[in-house]
């Protein structure tokens, strides 16, 4: 006998990184929300690399925090080792990364969800979804319990019709030995969603006590911790070690002679894997000339001896994985605790989503994370946050949150997914953003915190601290522009030692700071009026000055881009009415239904001529409307 | 896009030609053409299938304007993608102009600059760089220009630009690999390799820019002044040149009533002879307009043909003319080789790089003069089939790409951080992409089309 257990505003399916942010945002913005998970003990599972952040992903985490999301705080709290990548390559690409205590992270996240007002966290497998007569969504669990929801956010990760492959063995399964969500996959296909199959993989985990770290290069965290959250009261641990070792010709031989036993090459796997995170056997095939491959050995937690072997993701048979591992220096006698595997899963073609992450054809149904074709915890969390915010907007009749490409990596990620789509799991990269000198991790708060505050996800207290920071930046920026530094022997000695020319007359502090060889810190002795400001403030001043030319140029491009971005296109626009569009463009536009001309211009297959046609058409329509 | 207006214009260049074409395009093209064109077969144009030629005459009321052929194209199988009629009449500006006038009176709207090509472009019939190449083709008056325009149409410029773009993209990707995979042992591009790629791109783009001036001379023709004191034989030379390829010589009024410009081709190059009316009437422009004004005209010309009398001694006036020509494309022409030589040729050769001896009266030395003109204009080694920038917009994109590439180079050399260097490279690539129209926005498109010549 079916029974309806509860009615919610928002139901989130899945408690991974996307589901967490979606559920928290929904509940925090005042909607009665529930998150369903197949296994309550692995909320926010760090299923692969035990690390958060890295190039561009670190940017995403900082942006999530600036908007009022949770990932950054939990990551800071459960950090084992902290690094800032790309120091020396310029502030735009500095990227924080942290090794994370996996078990502690998941317990912490679970507790954060448990203590959130308006939010329920329930262990149950959702097996079906359907539309009720009164326009609600109805969800059924394995136990035939029913729930209704005004909005549903699908964040199913690799659980959806999950299938694990190791050698020629394969079986239906979610990640880490959890149940897959097979019935839900059938239900979604029945609903008519354009589903497809992607795959990803993970390497072996080995016992620390069985490896010889003396044959590896240990790697410590940075002296100065790089935190994710702009809230600085979270103490950060930074004492764990990682290790680096390398594969060799023998490793290669083992893989090559067993390639035919890989499900990737024997044709057992249909799913498309990520180009940017290939399996080890993939690397051997594609980079045949490369003599060695780096293996990055990462700790999985403080209370476990389990180590993660980054770079050796594999779905070769168990005995082959063991054989090639033993050729690697330091791993000769390793004891494997979990074998590497590939996992195939169902996901949706994101081109059918709006920039709000709501389905075009299914009102109040949203997708987030791997379900939308992305890969990565950070990418998932970013989408979850946006989907959660927009589900609330849908319910409360508010303006949706659409972040454009110039606002954030989050906006870039979502625009890429819903406009260009993806043919393999989408991973964020700094090079995907054309405005990256402005979209830095250091200024994520300046870019997004006002938006987070407007939405109601940033507290008054935090917002006033933010406003004070912005004020201090402006005051110091002005002072630096007005301060004249007089020449002195000591200053000229410093300048010469830094291989830049000495000064003979007074020079504006700003001009001096513009020199690539000079930094704010080193000028302290010559700048007696300098106020006592935090490094976060002086960093903003310094970057603003040093990269002013580039920043101005990018700002001009952003203004140009936004001119097309404000030319909105109706959701129901019938593109067959616009004569002059080429057929390919018309078909693409009809499918993707861009929100504005800017988005339309980024669709592959829509040419500048098509955009001109649309602009002329819009102008004509506008004139007609005026008449 | 389909426009409700039917437009018409002269599709052939506003210059010489045996045949003039008036083109109509738009929903009522055949109806309007039918009003003014009477087919000998009595066929109705409105019922004519596409790709059909009709012989007949253009009529204006009772009056027959000209005998003509009318070609019918049915949408979308026409240049513009719309219904199109082309009326081929007997060249000459007067007749062609009258046919156009008749068509306009019958209900067609005059085409805006470049509107046919704009419609073709908007209907997906032409890519942007091909559209621009068509414009060059229409403008091209000499053989070389026609060949240069054809090669751009076939995508030589696009190919060249794509090569450089892909190198820049390779550089950007090289930097990206360093940035996005800092811990990985990816094949990273070394700074030196990066620098050498960027330097190569910058160098080749600068070369391409150099061809722009030569290209301009070829597509637009060189503004040429024939100078010399009275009775050295300027008008004889003029008649010789204009008569040399009579079929393509015409004259048409310029913007000022008094100025007549005559276009001739010499060795495949187009020369635009200014002030030829003055030359003809008085054979004495220097005296007529004063030395100062003559010198100013010489200064503004692309090419000066300085004529001297070989049978006379060099006068002070001759020497002033020689000095004025120094340092600019010019040819010292020693005329009257059929008479005994008294002129000091050595003196002239000491100042002028190109000295040619002719007998304008006997028609001797024109071939030699053609070679000298080509050398003086710097187009003798010019390969018209090579990639060439066709207009100011293309040149501008290329200049910007060079500036940004050089910015990346100096950034790398001075230790600027990679994030900024990468942006410069990427924007340089964008400039080149814009050149082939791949990123062009509506403002760019409008600008291109407003600079199009009316007609094609």
Task: Give an overview in words.
The complex is a heterodimer of chains A (627) and B (456). Chain A has 627 residues and is of the alpha+beta class. Chain A has four domains: 3-198 and 348-454, FAD/NAD(P)-binding domain; 205-344, Elongation Factor Tu (Ef-tu), domain 3; 460-551, tRNA uridine 5-carboxymethylaminomethyl modification enzyme MnmG/GidA (Arc Repressor Mutant, subunit A); 566-626, GidA associated domain, C-terminal subdomain (DNA polymerase, domain 1). Helix content of chain A is 36%, strand content 18%. In chain A, the strands form five sheets. In chain A, strands 1, 2, 6, 7, 8, 9 and 20 form a seven-stranded mixed beta sheet that branches. Chain A has a six-stranded antiparallel beta sheet with strand order 14-15-16-17-13-18, with no helix packed on it. Chain A starts with a strand and ends with a helix. Chain B is of the alpha/beta class and 456 residues long. Chain B has three domains: 7-126, Probable tRNA modification gtpase trme, domain 1 (Gyrase A, domain 2, 2-Layer Sandwich), CATH 3.30.1360; 153-216 and 387-436, Up-down Bundle (Four Helix Bundle (Hemerythrin (Met), subunit A)); 222-301 and 303-376, 3-Layer(aba) Sandwich (Rossmann fold), CATH 3.40.50. Chain B contains 17 helices and 14 strands. In chain B, the strands form two sheets. A seven-stranded mixed beta sheet of chain B has the order 3-4-5-6-2-1-7, with helices on one face. A seven-stranded mixed beta sheet of chain B has the order 9-10-11-8-12-13-14, with helices on both faces. In chain B, a hairpin with an 8-residue loop joins strand 1 (7-10) and strand 2. In chain B, helix 6 (156-180) runs antiparallel to helix 7 (191-220) and helix 15 (392-414) packs antiparallel against helix 16. The longest helix of chain B is centred in the middle third of the chain and has 30 residues, at 191-220. Mean pLDDT of chain B is 75; it is low at 244-260, 276-288 and 439-456. At the A-B interface, helix 17 and helix 20 of A face helix 6 and helix 16 of B.
């Amino acid at each position: 006998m079916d029974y309806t257990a509860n009615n919610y505003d928002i139901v989130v399916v899945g408690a991974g990184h996307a589901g967490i942010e979606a559920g928290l945002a929904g509940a925090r913005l005042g909607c009665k929300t529930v998150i369903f998970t197949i296994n309550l003990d692995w909320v926010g599972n760090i299923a692969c690399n035990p690390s958060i952040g890295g190039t561009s992903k670190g940017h995403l985490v900082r942006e999530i925090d600036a908007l009022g999301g949770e990932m950054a705080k939990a990551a800071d709290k459960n950090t084992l080792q902290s690094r800032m990548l790309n120091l020396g390559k310029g502030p735009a690409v500095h990227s924080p990364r942290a090794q994370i205590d996996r078990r502690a992270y998941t317990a912490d996240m679970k507790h954060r969800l448990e203590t959130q007002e308006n939010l329920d966290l329930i262990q149950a497998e959702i097996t079906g979804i359907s539309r009720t007569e009164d326009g609600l969504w109805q969800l059924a669990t394995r136990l035939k319990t029913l729930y209704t929801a005004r909005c549903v956010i699908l964040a199913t990760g690799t659980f959806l019709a999950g299938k694990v492959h190791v050698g020629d063995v394969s079986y239906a399964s979610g990640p880490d030995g959890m149940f897959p969500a097979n019935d839900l996959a059938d239900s979604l296909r029945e609903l008519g969603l354009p589903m497809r199959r992607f795959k990803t993989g993970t390497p072996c985990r080995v016992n620390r006590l069985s490896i010889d770290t003396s044959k590896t290069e240990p790697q410590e965290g940075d002296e100065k911790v790089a935190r994710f959250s702009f809230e600085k009261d979270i103490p950060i641990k930074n004492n764990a070690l990682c290790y680096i070792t390398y594969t060799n010709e023998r490793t290669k031989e083992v893989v090559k002679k067993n390639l035919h036993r890989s499900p990737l090459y024997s044709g057992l796997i249909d799913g498309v894997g990520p180009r940017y995170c290939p399996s080890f056997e993939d690397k051997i095939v594609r980079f045949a000339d490369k003599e060695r491959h780096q293996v990055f050995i990462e700790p999985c937690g403080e209370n476990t001896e389990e180590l993660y072997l980054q770079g050796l993701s594999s779905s070769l048979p168990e005995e082959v994985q063991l054989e090639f591992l033993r050729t690697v220096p330091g791993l000769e006698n390793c004891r494997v605790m979990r074998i590497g595997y590939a996992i195939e899963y169902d996901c949706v073609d994101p081109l059918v989503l709006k920039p709000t992450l709501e389905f075009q054809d299914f009102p109040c149904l949203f997708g987030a994370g791997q379900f939308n074709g992305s890969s990565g915890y950070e990418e998932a969390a970013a989408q979850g946050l946006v989907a959660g915010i927009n589900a609330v907007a849908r319910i409360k009749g508010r303006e949706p949150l659409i972040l454009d490409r110039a606002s954030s990596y989050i906006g870039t990620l979502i625009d890429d997914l819903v406009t260009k789509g993806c043919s393999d799991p989408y991973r964020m990269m700094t090079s995907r953003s054309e405005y990256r000198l402005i979209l830095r991790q250091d200024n994520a708060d300046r870019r997004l915190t006002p938006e987070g505050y407007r939405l109601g996800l940033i507290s008054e207290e935090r917002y006033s601290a933010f406003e004070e920071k912005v004020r201090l930046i402006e005051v110091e920026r002005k002072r630096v522009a007005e301060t004249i530094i007089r020449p002195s022997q000591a200053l000229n000695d410093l300048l010469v030692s830094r291989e830049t020319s000495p000064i003979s007359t007074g020079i504006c502090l700003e001009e001096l700071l513009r020199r690539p060889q000079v930094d704010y810190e080193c000028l302290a002795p010559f700048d007696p009026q300098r106020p006592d400001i935090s490094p976060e403030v002086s960093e903003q001043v310094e970057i603003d000055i040093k990269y002013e030319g580039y920043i101005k140029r990018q700002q001009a491009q952003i203004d140009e881009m936004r001119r097309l971005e404000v030319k909105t296109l109706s959701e129901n626009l019938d593109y067959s009415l616009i004569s002059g569009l080429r057929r390919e463009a018309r078909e693409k536009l009809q499918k993707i239904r861009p929100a504005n001309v800017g988005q339309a211009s980024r669709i592959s297959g829509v040419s500048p001529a098509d955009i001109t046609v649309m602009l002329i058409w819009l102008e004509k329509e506008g004139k007609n409307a005026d008449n | 896009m389909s426009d409700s207006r039917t437009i018409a214009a002269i599709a052939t260049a506003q210059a010489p030609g045996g045949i003039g074409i008036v083109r109509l395009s738009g929903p009522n093209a055949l109806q309007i053409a039918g009003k003014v064109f009477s087919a000998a077969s009595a066929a109705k144009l409105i019922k004519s299938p596409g790709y059909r030629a009709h012989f007949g005459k253009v009529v204006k009321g009772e009056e027959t304007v000209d005998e003509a052929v009318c070609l019918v194209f049915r949408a979308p199988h026409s240049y513009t993608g719309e219904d199109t009629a082309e009326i081929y009449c007997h060249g000459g500006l007067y007749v062609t102009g009258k046919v156009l006038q008749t068509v306009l009176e019958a209900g067609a709207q005059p085409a805006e600059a470049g509107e046919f090509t704009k419609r073709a472009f908007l209907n997906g019939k032409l890519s942007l760089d091909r559209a621009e190449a068509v414009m060059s083709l229409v403008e091209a008056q000499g053989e070389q220009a026609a060949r240069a325009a054809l090669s751009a149409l076939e995508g030589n410029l696009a190919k060249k630009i794509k090569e450089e773009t892909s190198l820049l993209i390779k550089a950007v990707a090289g930097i990206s690999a360093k940035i996005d995979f800092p811990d990985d042992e990816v094949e990273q591009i070394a700074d030196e390799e990066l620098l050498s790629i960027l330097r190569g791109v910058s160098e080749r783009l600068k070369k391409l820019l150099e061809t722009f001036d030569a290209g301009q001379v070829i597509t637009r023709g060189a503004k040429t002044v024939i100078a010399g004191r009275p009775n050295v034989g300027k008008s004889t030379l003029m008649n010789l040149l204009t008569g040399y390829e009579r079929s393509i010589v015409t004259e048409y009024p310029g913007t000022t009533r008094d100025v007549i410009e005559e276009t001739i081709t010499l060795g495949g190059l187009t020369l635009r002879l200014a002030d030829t009316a003055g030359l003809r009437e008085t054979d004495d422009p220097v005296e007529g307009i004063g030395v100062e004004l003559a010198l100013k005209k010489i200064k503004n010309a692309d090419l000066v043909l300085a004529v001297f009398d070989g049978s006379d001694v060099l006068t002070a006036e001759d020497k002033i003319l020689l000095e004025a020509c120094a340092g600019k494309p010019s040819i010292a022409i020693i005329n009257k080789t059929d008479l005994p030589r008294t002129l000091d040729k050595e003196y002239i050769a000491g100042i002028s790089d190109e000295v040619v001896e002719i007998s304008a009266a006997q028609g001797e030395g024109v071939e030699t003069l053609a070679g000298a003109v080509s050398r003086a204009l710097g187009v003798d080694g010019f390969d018209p089939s090579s990639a060439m920038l066709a207009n100011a917009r293309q040149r501008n994109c290329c200049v910007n790409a060079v500036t940004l590439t050089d910015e990346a180079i100096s950034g790398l050399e001075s230790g600027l951080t990679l994030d900024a260097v990468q942006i410069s490279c990427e924007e340089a690539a964008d400039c080149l992409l814009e050149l082939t129209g791949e990123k062009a926005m509506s403002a760019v498109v409008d600008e291109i089309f407003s600079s199009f010549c009316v007609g094609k």
